[in-house]
Amino acid sequence: MSRQSILAVSLLGFTLAGCAGLPFGVASQPPAGERWVASWGSAQLVPEGQNELPAAQWQDASLRQVVRVSLAGRRLRVKLSNVFGTAPLVVDAGSVARAVQPGRADVDAASLRPLRFGGAAGVTIPAGAEYLSDPVDLPHAAGADLAISLHFAQAPARQTGHPGARATSFIARGNQVASPAWPQTETFTRWYQIAGVESLAGAGAHTVVAIGDSITDGYGVQPDTYARWTDGLATRLRSAGMTDIGVVNAGIGGGRMLRDGLGPNLVSRFERDVLARPGVSHAIVMIGVNDFGVQHRNKEDSPAERARLVADLQEAYRQIVARAHLQGVCVLGATITPYGGSGYYQPGAENEADRVAYNQWIRTAGIVDGVVDFDAALRDPARPDHLRKSLDNDGLHPSPAGYQAMADAVPLARLKTCSIAR
Q1: Do residues 97 and 145 lie in contact, with contact meaning Cβ atoms separated by under 8 Å?
Q2: What does the alpha-carbon distance between residue 219 and residue 221 come to, in Å, rounded to a whole number?
Q3: Could you write out the three-class secondary structure of 20-73?
Q4: 3-state secondary structure of 84
Q5: CB-side neighbour CA atoms (13 Å) of 71
Q6: Model confidence over 144-162: pLDDT tens digits?
Q7: Phi and psi, residue 91, nearest 5°
Q8: How far is residue 284's CA from residue 281's CA, in Å, rounded to a whole number?
Q9: What are the DSSP calls for 134-157, one per residue?
Q10: pLDDT in tens, 235-270
């Protein structure tokens, strides 16, 4: 062997030894038999109007935001988001801890852990990017409330967030991320700049992502009550002993399949909100009521445009299912619940005919890998274009009892495994 070859082999050995000695960071592989699995997450959009946090509240401020994870674990990492930012986002410091109780800013002091990014206390996230923290050793139960605290010197150039948090979070002046007690705070019920929590779990653990509109996002659910249908589904899974299945809610109020609304259209966000989440095995897709309703409300529902909308919705479904199957993810198609009592959309007979036909296509076309028949679970037998009175909130959205009926309608056996070959 030549002198140059010997040197090359020596350098290779040194490099490999150095890789083996790297700390367990974002880029390193988890231990054998374990993997990262999404345990909590939300869909991101650009907050506008009352959903935007005023710039003054970001100045030298700490945000303590509370999320409920769906998987137990001993180690986790947090995903921060600047996906809609127009400039780099500077996060000066961060921490994660177990919250004391919903609606309170204090955390369990013994569980308080700093967030690190490549070992550093702060991080700068480029515009359009999302960053993971280094892994954090923090034992936590399924259904635990975790508080993610972040300090900012100033407001983001453009905020990234999720208005439908349905959970109380807190603002304190100065860098308070290491303080377990926050006696003086302002409160808000939205999430900003956080996109996910991932737990280190066994090789068989996986996650179901529910993606849709305000019915999935949980419109009408009071803060800190955790009464969305996805919350009920997570509770059902745990009660059934299926503790290795997580649930992530990727609903956006006002969301549509084909066009942007309060947030991006579902087709455009499917990769980020579903397929990019680690350990995802299933997507439950419930979408279309706003596509139909907005068309009618805007008086764009000529027979030709109605037929075009149905055809476009069906093609969009085919596309997202094909993309999911490429990643080995199964898609359960959820039927659209009745909205004949909606004072906002005031649907007519043509809207109802389109909804019924679309639901029947979901059930019978063979495009999806299974069906979640929310329509059958919530409709009034005497008036099938209306929600059952005991399950109705406003003619469009279910009541808490309606959301529980949705959770009960999900066939748990379908969530155990996905047979789609990757």
Answers
A1: no
A2: 6
A3: HCCCCCCCCCCCCCEEEEEEEECCCECCCHHHCCCHHHHCCEEEEEEEECCCCE
A4: coil
A5: 32
A6: 999 999 999 999 999 999 9
A7: -110, 115
A8: 10
A9: PPEEEEE-TT-EEEEEEEESS--S
A10: 999 999 999 999 999 999 999 999 999 899 999 999
